[in-house]
Amino acid sequence: QVQLVESGGGLVQAGGSQRLSCTASGRTSSALAWFRQVSGKEREFVASISRNTGAIYYANSVKGRFTISKDNTKSAVYLQMNSLKPDDTAVYYCAATRLSLGGPKSSYEYWGQGTSVTVSS
User: Fold this and answer.
1) How far apart (Å, rounded) are the C-alpha atoms in residues 100 and 113?
2) Is 9 in contact with 78 (CB distance < 8 Å)?
3) Which of 31, 61, 68, 106 has a C-alpha 20 to 30 A away from that of 51?
4) CA diameter of the chain
5) How many CB atoms lie within 10 A of CB 73?
């Protein structure tokens, strides 16, 4: 199995930056991703990265502002968030799949507990 632990959430002013981290343990994943969810709304894909090819996907809402990266040696994935907006406020979840190469349409079998990001105006 795969265990995921997120960190780095907190309170940030609009226009500021925040960096999220996720460390994976257990079996090796083929892709890692970030999702976010606002209370009462559906979970939204943010970004993903494949382990071996490095292929990256971004949601249109974050493209140009967020950057996903990985460290295979540490089995870690990161999300650098710049130019943050109040609409970015959400609980951010790390996700992993061993069955696909990632992307917004893939299913993810493993999930972290989430880390909260609040962007104030």
Assistant:
1) 22
2) no
3) 61
4) 41
5) 6
